[in-house]
């Protein structure tokens, strides 16, 4: 457990070691109950690796403090979290919130008057966020908090600015679980999280070199200068996109929003997982957007295109504020991908297919992934472990005008370091064709395949379309893969045989 001061402010103090096990279920997005830290240990001669709050970070709106403050503050004799819950005090914070998540806005408002503790729990912003997204869809104007947004949506004549009571601060309320949600929303990225840049960078290479040095080896690369002729690189900013798109709505998490409303939200929000605009139909909605960029020459062989309108979703416009992004995942359908930054910058962390990132727990069938609730939480609690790993992650900051190649099967995390606009596309080339076919015919393919209505028949449709256009090519790819695998095995056993023979001769 940590005290607020020791956790937040950089100073010449001792190093504090922390240990957490918070995780996210890909289905319900819940964080398992665990304190921010289970150890409070100081070692002589070591400086504290502190965290810095963002310059505009407010204090916790309800006065919640980390549990460490309760034990370190001699004036604190009671944790109002427990006294206010009564017999429910034995429940974890997560379970309490899961129960409250079954209630509507009216009942949450009534429950907030029961006690100080229920006041804090009932005003937990994610509860109100869920209510807004479930009941108002994308038809809302963000009002500075999700609770205010909910009230304004259902009671438009009610002036939410008159609800000063909603910012009451509760004394002596201690909870690592609730405090960490606020903390992750307000922490700056530490410089040491951004300094590692070990990706290979290339400018102006040929397609042949890209294929032989990166795509065939399934190796990431950052490509520079690929977007120099994109109209989007010069045009795409807030004003241009709002004017061009007007009242059209784009996919933002589980809802659809107008760009103007989304930017109003992203300017005000301060939460650990900001809503991310991630729309797969942007070019159909606004054809001009699709005409203002072009696929870099390295990625133009896209075999899913043989399916025409039946192909899975493959291209997205991505817009988000600083702190938004995608937690660890592998791209769908065993495809490879490229991601081009048009405005802003993104931090990337990538692990090869055979290395599961720390803090990430995929299910055996790959259908679900448990990982930290927020990206900042992963950096806080797990990034440091990678320093001692033999297979360190590939990392970089991708800036405007740069493109990153993400090979199939690679785990990757992305966080926007500032408001960013990007284009990404997933594709299938001959280099990963067999991987895709293998993925599409797995026993549980109907659960794993994404981006298409017909998950069951995608394998047959794709294979038939490919064979019709390139007869005999699949057999050639299979033989090539078998030959490569055989050479790899022979190389290993030859080295073992040679070493044994040498030892045999030496003994005589």
TrEMBL record:
State the compartments where it is located.
Nucleus
Q: Where is the composition biased (Basic residues)?
A: 10-24
Q: Which domain of life is it from?
A: Eukaryota
| GO MF, any single term | metal ion binding
Q: Which cofactor does it need?
A: Fe(2+)
| InterPro entries on file | Cupin_8, F-box-like_dom_sf, JmjC_dom, JMJD6_ArgDemeth/LysHydrox
Where do the segments described as Disordered lie?
1-58
Q: Which UniProt keywords apply?
A: Iron, Metal-binding, Nucleus, Oxidoreductase
In this protein, which residues make up the domain named JmjC? 284-444
Question: Which Pfam families does the record associate with it?
Answer: Cupin_8
One cellular component (GO) term of this entry: nucleus
**PROSITE patterns given for it?**
JMJC (PS51184)
The record's principal subcellular location, in a coarse class, is nucleus
The UniProt entry's sequence similarity note says: Belongs to the JARID1 histone demethylase family.
Q: What is this protein called?
A: LRR-domain containing protein
Organism field? Trema orientale
Provide the taxonomic classification: Eukaryota, Viridiplantae, Streptophyta, Embryophyta, Tracheophyta
């Amino acid at each position: 457990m940590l005290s607020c001061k020791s956790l937040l402010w950089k100073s010449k103090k001792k190093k504090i070691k922390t240990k957490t096990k918070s995780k996210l279920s890909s289905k319900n997005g819940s964080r398992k109950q665990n304190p921010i830290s289970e150890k409070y240990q100081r070692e002589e001669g070591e400086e504290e690796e502190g965290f810095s709050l963002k310059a505009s970070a407010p204090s916790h709106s309800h006065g919640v403090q980390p549990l460490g403050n309760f034990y370190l503050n001699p004036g604190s004799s009671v944790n109002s979290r427990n006294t206010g819950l009564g017999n429910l005090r034995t429940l974890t914070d997560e379970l309490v919130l899961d129960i409250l998540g079954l209630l509507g806005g009216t009942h949450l408002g009534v429950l907030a008057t029961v006690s100080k503790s229920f006041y804090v729990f009932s005003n937990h912003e994610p509860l109100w966020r869920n209510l807004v997204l479930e009941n108002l869809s994308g038809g809302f104007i963000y009002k500075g908090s999700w609770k205010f947004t909910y009230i304004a949506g259902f009671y438009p004549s009610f002036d939410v600015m008159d609800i000063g009571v909603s910012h009451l601060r509760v004394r002596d309320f201690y909870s690592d679980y609730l405090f960490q949600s606020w903390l992750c929303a307000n922490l700056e990225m530490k410089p040491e999280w951004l300094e590692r840049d070990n990706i290979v960078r290339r400018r102006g290479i040929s397609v042949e070199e890209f294929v032989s040095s990166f795509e065939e080896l399934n190796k990431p690369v950052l490509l520079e200068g690929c977007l120099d002729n994109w109209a989007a690189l010069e045009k795409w900013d807030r004003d241009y996109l709002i004017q061009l798109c007007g009242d059209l709505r784009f996919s933002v998490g589980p809802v659809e929003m107008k760009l103007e409303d989304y930017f109003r939200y992203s300017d005000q929000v301060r939460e650990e997982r900001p809503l991310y605009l991630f729309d797969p139909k942007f070019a159909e909605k606004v054809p001009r957007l699709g005409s203002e960029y072009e696929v870099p020459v390295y990625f133009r062989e896209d075999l899913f295109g043989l399916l025409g309108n039946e192909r899975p979703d493959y291209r997205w416009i991505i817009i988000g504020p600083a702190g938004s992004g995608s937690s660890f995942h592998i791209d769908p359908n065993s495809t490879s991908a490229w991601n081009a930054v048009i405005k802003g910058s993104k931090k990337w962390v990538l692990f090869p297919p055979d290395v599961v990132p720390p803090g990430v727990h995929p299910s055996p069938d790959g259908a679900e992934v448990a990982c930290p609730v927020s990206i900042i939480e992963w950096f806080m609690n797990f990034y440091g472990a990678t320093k001692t790993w033999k297979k360190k992650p590939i990392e970089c900051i991708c800036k405007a005008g740069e493109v990153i190649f993400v090979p199939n099967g690679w785990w990757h995390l992305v966080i926007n370091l500032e408001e960013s606009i990007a284009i990404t596309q997933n594709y299938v080339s001959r280099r990963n064709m067999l991987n895709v076919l293998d993925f599409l015919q797995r026993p549980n393919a109907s659960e794993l395949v994404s981006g298409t209505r017909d998950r069951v028949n995608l394998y047959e449709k794709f294979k038939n379309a490919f064979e019709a256009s390139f007869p005999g090519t699949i057999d050639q790819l299979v033989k090539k893969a078998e030959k490569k695998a055989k050479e790899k095995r022979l190389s290993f056993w030859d080295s073992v045989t040679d070493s044994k023979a040498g030892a045999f001769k030496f003994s005589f």
